[in-house]
Amino acid sequence: MEKFRTVVSYFWNIIRDMGVVDFIDIAIVAILFYYMYKFIRERRAGKLAAGILILLLTLVLSNVLNMHAMQFILHNVFQVGVIAVIVVFQPELRSALEKMGSEPLKGLRSIGEAKSGERAQTLAMISEVTEAVCDMSLDKTGALIVIERTTKLGDIIKSGTVINANPTAFLIRNIFFNKAPLHDGAMVIRDDRLYAAGCFLPLSTNNDIIKDLGTRHRAAIGMSENSDAVIVVVSEETGTISIAVEGQLKRNYSYNTLKSELTGLLISDETQQKKSSQPGRLRHQKK
Length: 287
What we know:
YojJ-like (1
């Protein structure tokens, strides 16, 4: 009982001596740990974290039991391991830093409402893309459309052909026509304009992706893992419409649910930020 009182008294003295800055410090660290856990949980880095935790427990145990050989090996492993982790998980670390940098930009952009002209232009682009995607879905024409947001995709655009035209449904369908020269690559929409086509996207290395998904869907997921872009995919085999955002793929969109989802993702106005209802079966319905 005396030991318990000593421990309680020790922690109470620490809490009593804490100031406002200390509480702010704890809150910031807690937020950092939360986002670190969220980042690790959603990626293959989770298995790496579990392995590192096991090694740390082994190191503590070796120190307690004075296992000198094990201590020597583990100390050297940790010295080299940091560099190895950076090299192996460079794509994941790059994705995390890019998204970390894009979040403040999103916040600054959402402080003031978008101009009515810009909002109307974005809505017009969404309507044209939705119409083209649903038409291609009915014809089972494969398509891969990347809509750029805050993360600039200059390196992706360089791999394709710059077009810089108004994104009409007719033009989009013609580019993805299976006899067209640029139909195999991805289309990039920047600033509400059809900016480039025939672009190459990075493939996702996530082993948890279901085997039924082909290269087009894996490229969409890979692009969403490396940027904050919104990627729309039309399956050439089934005509299924999918959206990839932040490494997650949602499938089975209809005309109405696709348009609602794109509006919620691309329009910064708070009234437009509500998530669309769950996508149902594919139906080509226009309002």
